[in-house]
Design brief:
It is a single chain. Helix 2 packs across helix 5. By secondary structure, the protein is mostly helical. 20% of the residues are buried. The chain is built from six helices and no strands.
Length: 98
Amino acid sequence: MAAAPFAGGGGVVSRKARDRDTPLLTPLQSAVLLGHARGEQPSQIADQLQIGVRDVRLHLRAVLVALKAVNATHAVGIACARGLIDSSDILKGDPDVR
C-alpha cells in the first residue's frame, strides 16, 4: 500500500491550506534570494540593495530557515516552486550577471 503524499492522507491540499503553510519572505529577503539566484556575489547584492554584506548573509540565512532549505540553491528552487520568486526574474537584469 502506497503512502499518502501528504500528512492527513487526503493527497490533495487545497490552495488555502497551501498558502497558509507557505512562509512569506520579506521584500528584502526575496531580493537577496533573487540576487543569489542570478549568481551575484554578496558584495554585489549588498551594493544593489544598499545594505551591508553581513546583512545579505543574515537575510539569506533567514530565508534558509523560513523555507527549511539545506542551502541557498535549494531555497531558490523552493521559492520558485511556491511562487515566492518568479523564475523569469532570474534571467532579467544585467546580462553580465548571467
